[in-house]
Amino acid sequence: MISLNNYINIKKKVFSLSSKTKIIVVTKTFPTEKFQNIINYGHKDFGENKVQEAIEKWSPIILNIKDIKLHLIGNLQSNKARDAVKIFDFIHSLSSEKLALILQKEENLLNKKIKYFIQINLGEEKNKNGIAISDAANFIKFCKNDLLLNVIGLMCIPPINASPDFYFSQLNKIAYKNNLSELSMGMSSDFVSAIHNGATYIRIGSAIFGTRK
Total structural domains in the chain? Predict the structure, then answer.
């Protein structure tokens, strides 16, 4: 019941800040029994980092509950693209032309459309995936106009130990300039800042379930 109580408290706080922001409950590394009560409560949006873990964990659940929406919030390797398109409804980590081309091909083969967030590397960090700010406009046009991918918004992960407000505000401005309405930003430690800067999806795991092993 602890996780459910945490979830309800966070939901109330989020709603008090914005009625437009959706919570993605991040279940990566946690077994089903940790979040079954949140499913039973009626929550629909859940996030995973790894394709194989999502398949093993969620395949039996979505057979019975059709309106659950699964979000891939971790990096996607190109050889996992087909399985990702099969299991996920949203992919938050579209971050290269190569991956975009592969995802377009897999969508056509499987006759399924995914909703995409393009990941922007706002801090220009070498160890982090994402499109450079200077390349964002062209990449968005390429994905939307040339590949006809359903790009709905942008995603970012601010640099560690940096104030997130600047980066969240920056992502909001990039989205506005490119006519994108959805922003996937903010996690357990900084979701309040993200909401203040226009987040429409926040990704919450440890604040609900506790520290991962």
Answer: 1
- The pairing of strands 150-155 and 182-184 is parallel
Report the residue count for the chain. Answer: 213
Number of H helices, E strands in the chain: 9, 8
CA distances from 186 to 90, 143, 205 (A): 17, 24, 11
Amino acid present at 21: T
pTM above 0.90, yes or no: yes
Least confidently predicted of 17-26, 97-106, 154-163, 164-173: 154-163
State which residues form the domain around 130: 2-209
The tens digit of pLDDT for each residue in 121-164 reads 998 888 889 999 999 999 999 999 999 999 999 999 999 888 89
User: Tens digit of pLDDT for each residue in 153-163?
Assistant: 999 999 988 88
CATH code of the domain in which 110 resides: 3.20.20.10
Which alpha helices (DSSP H) does the chain contain, by range?
2-17, 32-41, 51-64, 81-87, 97-110, 136-141, 164-177, 191-196, 206-209
For residues 20 and 146, give the distance between their C-alpha atoms in angstroms, rounded to a whole number.
30
